[in-house]
Amino acid sequence: MRHIISLLMENESGALSRVAGLFSARGYNIESLSVAPTEDPTLSRMTIVTRGSDDVIEQITKQLNKLIDVVKVQDLTEGGHIERELMLVKVRASGEHREEMKRMSDIFRGRIIDVTDKTYTIELTGTVSKLNAFLGALESDAILEVVRTGASGIGRGDRIMRV
Amino acid sequence: MTGAEIVVRCLQAEGVAYVFGYPGGAVLNIYDEIYKQDQFKHVLVRHEQAAVHAADAYARATGRVGVALVTSGPGATNAITGIATAYMDSIPLVVLTGQVPTAAIGMDAFQEVDTVGISRPCVKHNFLVKDVRELASTIKKAFYIAATGRPGPVVVDIPKDVTQQSCPFEYPAEIRMRSYNPTYRGHAGQIRRAVQMLLEAKRPMIYTGGGVILGDAAEQVTELTRLLGFPVTNTLMGLGGYPAPDPLFLGMLGMHGTFEANMAMQHCDVLLAVGARFDDRVIGNPKHFAKEARRIIHIDVDPSSISKRVKVDVPIVGDVAQVLDEIIRQIKAGSERPDQAALKAWWAQIELWRSQDCLKYERSETVIKPQYVIEKLYEVTGGDAYVTSDVGQHQMWAAQYYPFNKPRRWINSGGLGTMGVGLPYAMGVQLAFPEAKVVCVTGEGSIQMNIQELSTCMQEKLPIKIVLLNNRYLGMVRQWQEFFYEERYAESYVDALPDFVKLAEAYGHVGMTIERPQDVEPALRDAFGKYKDRLVFMNFVTDPHENVYPMIPAGKGLSEMILV
Ligand SMILES: Cc1ncc(C[n+]2csc(CCOP(=O)(O)OP(=O)(O)O)c2C)c(N)n1
User: Fold this and answer.
1) B435 an active-site residue?
2) Mean pLDDT of B323-339
């Protein structure tokens, strides 16, 4: 099962490598990982997308909690939550493709943020599956470059994670 | 005050008695400050690995935090095996490592290594101190983290310029960390469920591990076991958690555990696991273990140890001594007692298993049996020695044939299984308890992995007794090759052994070679009598073909033992 795990951790050098090291040392899978400081500069917020059986996910959250730099751990997928990922895609946009690309970007509510006579760079946010769907809808030789941030997640409604 | 002085003052403030270490460029400022003080003693080892092992054994024997100090680069890398060994057995250590000056970090400077990176997977936590103003609070945190919760080693990496810079010194009296709050109190509801389950048991079993030793809960384990009249077993790391000579004790369990302990573990209906982690050397294959239905109560200070390899019915996270105290209190306060008829039938079954006498071995008049040496060692020391061991067959025989009465008496590397720990372990213990009998049981393979420490022992005048069970083989490897590789003894025969008597003498100690069974006891008596105040190296030439029984082959289940 796919899980989105959120952590708050001390914004210390090396904290990220402790988390990454834990996943590789114990053979847990990481689909994506995104991290940045929060409104409190001493804290970083990390979102990890992983897959595993319930037992594995239980171990992952316990092991993360055990890291000294980790302040809080939450499995977002246990309750209502929202996830978003940002993607930048550079696509071929010449000749008859140009109009088609603009149309596709509009359908997926993307924004064209950079233009040359041969290319568009499209910015798209959404769930991981929406971004996948967009890429799937393009002809593969039209895609020149893809950059994705990995998912960020937050609980719905009153579900708040803070220190 | 300079950083170097601050380091020394912090160690003094922590009440450190011994620092085990080895100097080098990056730590010379610290050594200079050590030279100027006499509140704690520095013990100069002959290899940094031994410094960490000795500090580790000091911690195991005393329950206090062990301290080691090494230089940057090779000093730090040499220390890694010691750190990993302590980590696997959850031993509280603070290891101070020198580092190149902050400006040189990342420049491939002389004797630079990324100590924080290299040690990260085998420490509870580590720090690189970049500012002298953070030095004191970091060392305070290191001691706090090492000793609390599930203990473990903490590395503090200190660049040379930080030891030169100055700032006012203040050692924090207390430390609070928002990200680290170990749980000590067990959940009240779970404790009630545990009590109920124990009272309902028809075929109960108590299984305790290293957590009981580390958590100073041997007294509670003993009281609870006797209160209920339940059978009890200890893991290799947990020996001494219950007095071994007692009839309720079924011996050690696991790969080389007793028949009765393993069978009772497999066939019980309620299992109380305390400070133990169901590891592969203990329960073998978890699938086989799960074949029999039983309800499991698991008490551990580390939540991640619970339901890791085996599903648990009643998890209790907390300090093992406190939780056991509460369980005992509740049982005593109530009038309910376990079903005595069922318990009697269960004990009858256990006695049947016990009557197999799985630790019997063929005695000999002509060749020294290793088991016999340990039995005699037990007699001669009155069961009252601190026994350290290395890793191999001799380790298992020591565990099987020396019944430990008290916690913290059996000092060995259970988790990492590090050959070479035995002698430095004995040093740490002997320094902690100068008057105690300290024995290192070892093999001719293992002892040579830190043999240079005989020199440290001379310098510190440590009257350690080395019991070398010399079978001319890397015996445990040979045993696996005999059982599982059709007797192809690839590189397990140790040719060209040194003359251990001359070797011991060369270091200034007493050496003996013992070749006949009738000479075993007199040699031990001399060692603990005539040569009481000297290090005695006893080279027992033992039966090279002896195997450790019982044995559960790796990956098999608890009831799939090979018996003699
Ligand atoms: C550092 C290290 N290297 C290798 C091993 C693998 N190993 C486990 S037991 C053993 C043999 C030990 O031989 P010895 O010390 O002579 O003891 P014996 O088994 O003969 O009693 C070996 C090589 C180990 N545990 N540690």
Assistant:
1) no
2) 97
Which residues of A fall within a CB distance of 8 Å from B304? 59, 62-63, 65-66
Terminal Cα distance for chain B, rounded: 65
Name the helix (H) or strand (E) containing A92. Answer: strand A81-92
Contacts for B531 with CB less than 8 Å, ≥ 6 apart: B463, B510
CATH 3.40.50.300 assigned to B188-354: no
- Domain B370-541 CATH assignment equals 3.40.50.970: yes
User: What is the CATH architecture of B3-164?
Assistant: 3-Layer(aba) Sandwich (3.40)
Amino acid at B179: S
B413: DSSP letter = -
Question: Per the CB < 8 Å rule, is A21 touching B120?
Answer: yes
**CA dist list (Å): A30 to A5, A19, A48, A49, B190:** 11, 11, 7, 6, 34
Q: Where do you find CATH 3.40.50.970 in chain B?
A: 3-164, 370-541
Whether the CB of A7 is below 8 Å from some CB of chain B: the reply is no
Spatial contact of B412 and B253, defined as CB atoms under 8 Å apart:
no
Q: Model confidence over B256-305: pLDDT tens digits?
A: 999 999 999 999 999 999 999 999 999 999 999 989 999 999 999 999 99
CB of residue B389 inside a 6 A radius of ligand 1: no
pLDDT for the residue B564: 81
Tally of CA atoms within 13 A in the half-sphere of B319 that contains its CB: 16
Q: Give, using CA atoms, the residue closest to atom 8 of ligand 1.
A: B392
pTM of the complete model? 0.96
pLDDT tens readout for residues B172-207: 999 999 999 998 899 999 999 999 999 999 999 999
The reply to whether B177 touches chain A by the CB within 8 Å rule is yes
Residue B412 contacts residue B400 (beta carbons within 8 Å)? no
Mean model confidence pLDDT for chain B: 97
Output the 3-class SS for B67-127. Answer: EEEECCCHHHHHHHHHHHHHHHCCCCEEEEEEECCHHHCCCCCCCCCCHHHHHHHHCCEEE
SS3 A115: strand
The two three-digit tokens of residue B362, written as one number = 């063929």
Q: Contact B304/A63, CB-based, under 8 Å?
A: yes
Query: How far, in Å, from the CA of B562 to the mean position of ligand 1?
Result: 21
Q: Range(s) for CATH 3.40.50.1220 in chain B?
A: 188-354
Closest CA to B101 of B93, B110, B92: B110
Task: State pLDDT tens for residues B454-497.
Answer: 999 999 999 999 999 999 999 999 999 999 999 999 999 988 99
Q: What is the pLDDT of residue A95?
A: 87
Does the beta carbon of B394 lie inside 6 Å of ligand 1? yes
The segments of chain A whose pLDDT lies below 70 read none
Sign of CA dihedral A54, A58, A64, A65: positive
